[in-house]
Amino acid sequence: MKESSKRIVSGLIFAAIFIASLKTHVSFTLLTFAFGLISSYEFNKLVNQKGVGFYIIFILIFGYFSITEYYLNSILDSNSFFNDLKDTLLILSIFVSIFLVRDLFSSRDLPNFLKKKYINFTFYISSSFVFIYLIANFNGFYDPSIILGCFILIWVNDSFAYIVGKNFGKQKLFYSVSPHKTIEGFLGGLFFCCISASVVSRYVNESMDTSYWLIIAIIVSIFGTLGDLIESKFKRESNVKDSGNIIPGHGGMLDRLDSVIFASPYIYLFLKFV
Questions:
Q1: Structure confidence by residue, pLDDT tens digits, 77-91
Q2: What is the Cα–Cα distance from 15 to 159, expressed in whole angstroms?
Q3: Is the Cβ–Cβ distance between 271 and 135 less than 8 Å?
Q4: Closest CA to 33 of 253, 214, 269
């Protein structure tokens, strides 16, 4: 099977599994947790970090926020302490992500605190899966249409960035980190992602206007691309092509989810303003 065909088939299977998991709150939570564990393993392998402590951190963080969010939504109207913890996690995640972006454009060493092995893992990998979960429960109850809309925009952006870039791409976007990404591919992904915002607002989630979904599409395209580049830099520094081989044609789970991993805190931040 050709690489492009393998990529399409495995991508469709991945999408089907994800969409099927959205049927119930429990199945979505378990799949998000499983994706997070696999991504944690791949990230630790990528940066040569060992120890069970990383997985304990992920289990505790994801378990606490998912279980507490569920019971608060089911039993209580609000809890200021829990909301403060979510905001603190969001601030720290965005703070770390800013330094990861800066690292793309600078040859200077990262600040010492970012070199601590638990910092990137906690506030770049683990927290992202918490926000993926929280986005689906943002309205005070489980609403799979919101996270489905976000994933559709990410899939459209990634797919058309690849198609446009492969067929029309000439100007390199960030050659030193990802030689195959082009400016034309990025703009193609952004354009079709924005077009898809209208479809999402009409047929997937009608609780938010098209203008809101258009902003989410822009967030997805920009921050999703940055997330892809950041993961590419980690791979380049580790001298590997893919983070794993669990998804044929795509590589590892981290390769498949790098866009949403980086974009999820920013999507959640926008939803808070909405």
A1: 556 767 888 999 999
A2: 13
A3: yes
A4: 253
